UniProtKB/TrEMBL annotation:
Keyword Signal belongs to the record: yes
GO terms under cellular component: chitin-based extracellular matrix
UniProtKB keywords: Cuticle, Signal
PROSITE patterns: CHIT_BIND_RR_2
GO molecular function: structural constituent of chitin-based larval cuticle
Chain ranges passing through the membrane: none
Higher taxonomy: Eukaryota, Metazoa, Ecdysozoa, Arthropoda, Hexapoda
Name of the protein described by the UniProt record: Uncharacterized protein
Stretch forming the signal peptide: 1-18
Amino acid sequence: MKLLVAFAIVAFVGYVSAAPKPQEVTIVQNESVINEDGSFRTVLELSDGTSISQSGKIKNPTEPDPEKKIQVIEGSYKFTDAKTGEVVNVKYVADENGYQPVLSRK
Ligand SMILES: *[C@@H]1O[C@H](CO)[C@@H](O)[C@H](O)[C@H]1NC(C)=O
């Protein structure tokens, strides 16, 4: 019985140490710039390859009517699909024509 318990413990320890350890994800880059003219840029990149970046500006900054000022945002985000292992990349523009994403997987 003792031998069986000892064997079970050894087997369990072996199993646990053989299991893939979750990688600790760290921040590689984290930048944010906001300018007086309303333009901005942010970048966040993680050690597992996940990233998100976005930049924006006012397309017609001299337009006196605030209703007619157009905010344009361009960005992208990228991550690994845990099910398929594929890298999913979404690039988008959001402007007066709406949100226009373009998705790619590889
Ligand atoms: C990135 O930096 C900003 C400003 O220093 C901070 O507020 C934010 O929490 C940071 N993001 C992460 C994911 O740590």
